Amino acid sequence: MTLVLRYAARSDRGLVRSSNQDSVYAGPRLLALADGMGGHAAGEVASKVVIASLAPLDDDDPSDDLLAQLREAVQNGNAAIAELVQQDPDLDGMGTTLTAVLFAGSRMGVVHVGDSRAYLMRGGQFSQITRDDSFVNELLEQGRITPEEAAVHPQRSLLLKALTGHEVEPSLTVREARAGDRYLICSDGLSGMVSDETLSEAIQIPDPQACADRMIELALKGGGTDNVTVIIADVVDVDFGEDAPIVGGAAGDGSDEFHQGDSPAARARALTQPAPQPRPEVQPQQEDPKVKRRRRFRWLAGAVVVLIVLAAAAIATRYFVLSQYYVGEGPGEEVVIYRGVPGSVLGIDLHAYEQGSCPPGGLCTDKLLVPALQEDARIAVKNGVKKDNLDDARKYIDDFLRPHKQLADCKPAASSTSTPPASSPPPASSASPSTPASPSSANQPAGRDCSTPAPAAPGGGN
């Protein structure tokens, strides 16, 4: 068995309102109706925004959790209303009701906020399946007023729940769908004008479109004091159902607007509808050359301002970079001082060589190499040690790094057991007259700092 929907939707602005603030969507999987509220066309905006948030559900594949899909779509619509109000405070106070059904085979998820309604015709029984979120309905359920009093209560339009951009918890239910079910979803422009008894008779019209037309006709005959929107949907067991969505009311293009020819309701509409105003023919205007020149000047002035800002930013960046110094590893693994900061941008180095490990202006016979440093100092130099100025960088090399050199590469000469005692006079041929003898000079590596004295050779002393 394959259950599908066969549906029709109609909307009308009524006989009193100057615009239609209801929005409606009917598709193969989604039936949704929103009744906007708020002046200055704000209700129209709210209802369109919420319907737009739900419409994508008609294209999505059905999931196991229909209510989660509906809840998320409603939250998105409500958040969109809040964003619009934040952008334009004049829209504060706008909102909309919502009644929607998401169809998935033998199941239907229903979401409801406000006083729009959903009815079900099953097995000859006609019943309302949503609960009005209104002040009058609260009084009615508490037994404080009768149904007759509720119909004429002065606060019957006061809602306890609506989508206004503020936090609200919608009513969510899952229902079983059966072949032969007929659903009626309508705004209060129908339920407030037509009794449930009359609706239960009209809903038995077999064709969904003819049934929807009859519902709107009844609302207009009852006074048409509000926008009226209707969805009729049948659950049928056929291979293919309707597949073209219907978008109407404020969300549509007016193609769903109801027309009744020469009926009494149509004549009443003609009496209340404002006469169409002729549209003045718009003549193309030639742009004033002065305006064009002013526009060009403003564009050029703006471009110059942008270039000045960019140039100032570049100069400030360069000044900041060139005012920095750091000690790092240079060519030949030498410890050197760089002006700038480590790294590069777009392949351009942010630093330049400033000084080597030896102070400038003097003869350097002892360059400080990175491998000669102790491990912690070696790692720091490879990463770059930032300093506030050149003098601090110079002191860091001379006062900190040089004392932390490894002394392993400055080894004393190997001791010999044949070394004569210090008290014995050296043989005449053991040293040249012009060169004093030193125990470690023969084995001292060139270019190394070996200022630490070598330990005394074994056997020395008196």
Describe the protein's architecture and organization.
The chain is of the alpha+beta class and 462 residues long. The protein is built from eleven helices and 16 strands. It has helices at residues 42-54, 66-87, 135-141, 147-151, 188-191, 196-202, 208-221, 264-272, 289-322, 375-383, 390-401; strands at 3-12, 22-26, 30-37, 95-96, 98-104, 107-113, 117-122, 125-128, 171-176, 182-186, 228-237, 246-249, 325-329, 335-345, 348-355, 385-387. Strands 2, 3, 4, 5, 6, 9 and 12 form a seven-stranded antiparallel sheet that branches. The protein has a five-stranded antiparallel sheet with strand order 1-11-10-7-8. A four-stranded antiparallel sheet has the order 15-14-13-16. A hairpin with a 3-residue loop joins strand 2 and strand 3. Helix 1 packs antiparallel against helix 2. It holds the Pfam family PP2C. It comes from Amycolatopsis roodepoortensis. Its EC number is 3.1.3.16.
